[in-house]
Amino acid sequence: MQKTITSKPRPTIPYEHPDLSMYMKLCKENLVRQRYKKAAYNQHDELIRQQFSDSEQSLSQLCETLVQYVAEAFEHYAVWDYTHAYYPGRPSQQNARTDAMEGCSRVLPTLAAWLNQRNGQSSIAGLNGKPIDVTAILSKAFLAGTDPNHKGYWGTLHDYDQRICESADLALALWLSRDWVWRQFSPSEQQQVVGWFKQVNHCQTVDNNWHLFPLTVQLVIKALTGEDCVEQQRYERVKEFYVGDGWFRDGAKGNYDYYNAWGFYYSLYWLDRIDPEFDSAFIRESLAEFIHGYRYFFTPEGLPFFGRSACYRLAASVPQLAALDLGIGRDQTIPSLLSVGEAKYALESSLRYFIANGALKNGAPTQGLFEEDPRLIDNYSGPASSFWSLRALNIALFSGDKNGLWQAEQQPFEVEKDDFSFKIPAIDATVMGTFKTKEVVVVFHSDYIQQQTPASRCLEKQKVQNKVLELLTSRAERPKNNLLRKGITCYTSKMSHFF
């Protein structure tokens, strides 16, 4: 019997239903983008592919190379004191400026995590050998982005604003770099920065994983200033989405999908790190339950992806890395089979498999599983949205030196040991692994939709007229290709349903 969650009416969100004035703004921002965008930075695409194909490269070396690759390209694309970055790629439903803000907000946590790992060592060399001052980038971005008189100002937030989502990443980057950035600001500069973040306290969000974004900001504000503006009711609502076995439903009527890994548990992990007294017991216990089944999903070559945001695929190992750092597996009160070597293998195999097969291009994770794939780009995803793929890397950089991640010997996945089959009752699914083929399959026992046809179940291509409109307005006009919502119930680590 699946848990019933009380639903709330979904609000009308302006960017999902644009009027004439919004289309005019879209066109205006697209013209600005055309003015400031730069040529695609593809100098090191082949190098990064070769590095991740080289079995002699250690995980720590690969992660350092990945940060170098990202940092160098970010410096190339960034504008207005690093507050925005116009990456090449297909636009989102937002506007070009918001897409460019993502080019900053989703990269800064990686730079800040690297800075934290290096204990404030400011300079990283790009793959071209030129030094990049990470502390300066972060400092300039926060001061410029929160200054209403600066061209790079991140703006006034409003209800259901995409920038609420981005503010969480920015707040995390500020917290990670606090010793070398925040504490070097003057009192007036600190007040300016915090003043911008406090806008989230007055904004409504969609009733799903988005509650975690204001919570992240609010816990960072509390950690940095001592001011407690944490909306506990938001957190209680998130816990209402918990259905058991470690799984959250993404809203009362939402999916069960990989947002559990790179959405819910990523945010919950950082809430715990920022404030270990926040709700440590629930976060650890639910994560331990999730890991108990989720660790079986992993194979040396692919995962049984289901749901949306397939472009975040490099972040699939977030739960294992979070569990490792939170002590799950070493804490005898929370039984777990997860080892340091298995967590390492989960991160390294997913990075190697996808990147060696083309998952990085022009300085960013591609909008697809491997190379670019327009069929897999959700309408809310823009050119830089895929940087959420680096969420596992962020945790590894932050915690790897403390928990022996880099030195551990890899341990095999369960599918490399034997066949298996078990149920996850909370999401009404069965997980099966085949030793001989190293394949893992997840089968759901219920449909999201009842009426299906072969045509309705396939990945749709974008119509020509919609592609033209997308080019003119820089607003996504793509079909919705969430296979769960199309009635697909069987997913394999071979990922053949995406090809």
TrEMBL record:
Residue ranges the record marks as coiled coil: none
Limits of the DUF2264 domain: 64-412
Classification via InterPro entries: DUF2264_N, UCP014753
Pfam families hit by this protein: DUF2264 (PF10022)
Superkingdom of source: Bacteria
Protein's UniProt name: DUF2264 domain-containing protein
Organism: Photobacterium sanctipauli
Upper lineage: Bacteria, Pseudomonadati, Pseudomonadota, Gammaproteobacteria, Vibrionales
